[in-house]
Amino acid sequence: MRIASNLVLAAFISFALAPFRPAFAAPDADNDKEKARVLRQLDEAAKNFHTTSADFEFDSVTTEPIADKEVQTGTVYYERKGAAFQMAAHIDKVDGKPVPKTYAYSGGVVKLYEKIPNQVTTLSKLGQYESWFMLGFGAGGKELEEKWDIKYLGSETLMDGKTGVKTEKLELAPKDPAIRKNLPKVTIWVDPVSGVSLKQVFDEGPGEYRVCVYFNIKVNQSLPKDAFTLATDKQTQFVNR
User: What are the DSSP E strand ranges found in 64-204?
Assistant: First the structure.
């Protein structure tokens, strides 16, 4: 399992120019004001966030040393009850071929169920990554500010089917140095009214990145009873890491 990773952050405008070009401060001030607006909208959305389901396409791209791309498609579910949060990504196909597997996260534990080898791999003590799993799905602005350095990049309309959705584009860098080694930067396109992302781009180091696109999004509707269930049987093998 890849839990997101690296790319060098863009350079800032030289501070030396600021005393001589005070007009440069205006865009920054405007961006800070817009960022504050979006984060407060996310705070309000988080109060009303309970569940989300969506279809997804995850494209893992490598550009060096050898160009490669892996496309995973399926359905994802999110649920939040107070401070408790869980999610599950049910992958149906990998590169167009049936490869059923499920990633489930709850209480700081990630479980990967792979149907073909009929195995469940458990990764414990991953609570520090919860902000990554929640990213753009129910996290309030204050929660994001606690874990991420945030930059506002403007508004953009994305399509969910035939419906255009106005999103706010945010660039986030983890404050935790241990996480930043694997995940230096994430860009999200989030609908601040619903608190749900339509797109995410994870930089995963030089020459690697992951694009996550969500569609057929349903907010605060009933989830299937097996949304967070792993389809194990008596022959399933269990591995802890």
Answer: 68-81, 84-94, 97-106, 109-114, 119-123, 148-160, 163-174, 186-191, 196-203
Position 5, amino acid? S
Query: Residue 95 corresponds to which tokens in the numbers above?
Result: 């590169």
Please give the share of the chain, as a percent, with pLDDT higher than 70. Answer: 86
End-to-end CA distance of the chain: 12
For residues 224 and 217, the answer to whether their CB atoms sit within 8 Å is: no
Give me the long-range contacts of 33-36 (CB less than 8 A, separation at least 24).
Answer: 34/152, 34/154, 34/168, 35/150, 35/151, 35/152, 35/170
Q: Where are the domains of the chain?
A: 22-240
164-204 tens-digit pLDDT: 999 999 999 999 888 888 888 999 999 999 999 999 999 98
Contacts of 172 (CB under 8 A, 6+ apart): 135, 144, 148, 149, 150, 151, 185, 186, 187, 188
Task: Please give the single-letter amino acid code of residue 143.
Answer: E
pTM: 0.84
Class of domain 22-240: mainly beta
